[in-house]
Prior knowledge:
The chain is of the alpha/beta class. The protein has 2 domains: 25-150, Rossmann fold (3-Layer(aba) Sandwich); 164-407, Orthogonal Bundle (Arc Repressor Mutant, subunit A), CATH 1.10.10.10. The chain is 38% helix and 16% strand. It contains 15 helices and 13 strands. The protein has a 6-stranded mixed sheet with strand order 8-9-10-11-13-12, sandwiched between helices. A 5-stranded parallel sheet has the order 2-3-4-1-5, with helices on both faces. A two-stranded antiparallel sheet has the order 6-7. A hairpin with a 5-residue loop joins strand 8 (324-330) and strand 9 (336-343). Helix 9 (182-204) crosses helix 13 (283-290), helix 10 crosses helix 13 (283-290) and helix 11 crosses helix 12. The two termini are 44 Å apart. Mean pLDDT is 88; it is low at 1-17.
Amino acid sequence: xxxxxxxxxxxxxxxxxxxxxxxxxxxxxxxxxxxxxxxxxxxxxxxxxxxxxxxxxxxxxxxxxxxxxxxxxxxxxxxxxxxxxxxxxxxxxxxxxxxxxxxxxxxxxxxxxxxxxxxxxxxxxxxxxxxxxxxxxxxxxxxxxxxxxxxxxxxxxxxxxxxxxxxxxxxxxxxxxxxxxxxxxxxxxxxxxxxxxxxxxxxxxxxxxxxxxxxxxxxxxxxxxxxxxxxxxxxxxxxxxxxxxxxxxxxxxxxxxxxxxxxxxxxxxxxxxxxxxxxxxxxxxxxxxxxxxxxxxxxxxxxxxxxxxxxxxxxxxxxxxxxxxxxxxxxxxxxxxxxxxxxxxxxxxxxxxxxxxxxxxxxxxxxxxxxxxxxxxxxxxxxxxxxxxxxxxxxxxxxxxxxxxxxx
Length: 408
């Protein structure tokens, strides 16, 4: 079934009762007002459909529905006829067409290109997998014709009311973090991991060994945030290290894992780590993959806190400004800094500690970093302190609630 909706102006209000304002909305609205088409990527259940409900479409095609998908698989070109049949008031703006989960029928991208080039329609294409969109030389990624945007789980700026324990244990997927009952959140997270990651992601990637992929997800959850050794994991799993690398690539392509590369250049250090870290995209999903309960020791909470801050920095760097990268810095023989914000030729080291009473000792590695890099003029410690605290001339401790200030 195809849902047809007449479009109101972009400023029209169609706000669901439980809508949480998304940081990406102004940029999406700006691009559509420029008459640009948009490819909106994001993992399942991050709120793409809810966000797009604020942008009334002339034609909306839900490709997750088998009967709809099969019809367009048989004849992708029929979409052009449906667009041509839409009522049009004058010649501008062109009809807005939403193709939801477009990776399910990649041939529709050719149709979209023709409609964009001829001015027949403007598109919002959504997808939860970059893998299918990139697979094969025949797939049309609409180069130069679409603006690519990415919708993440809720950031701290979008849902500042969530307690830290909920953020670390249950994550921030919109439909799960808003559930009041912890037992229901647990049930929903379990359904997400088993129903989506273990089945849909595995099937999409043509992974035939169910057991090895399920076990890999468990280890990926446990190892999330750490340096990853494909060879060590391959020994634990009993599979080739190249297969482990391909499993991580699958998670990246399906937008459920973040790869963070190190800052490996230095004037004086020759043995800086060059291996990458991987973070699962949501802390609740990570915990269920790892099979961890809700009662965790202090040391583990500190590790999860570090991961969560890293995810927050990555999300906000994508929305806030282009040209911003989040890295880490590690000398195997000495100091390390949890996260480094790289932007416009500057470096900002950020250390993470599970403490509410920070001291100068907590930032000694940040001080080393500041001496090492001329591009770095100040550093920060993110912790559970109730208010900002100056720890040295160039280093300040921040409450975790002020993470958005790091990229302001």
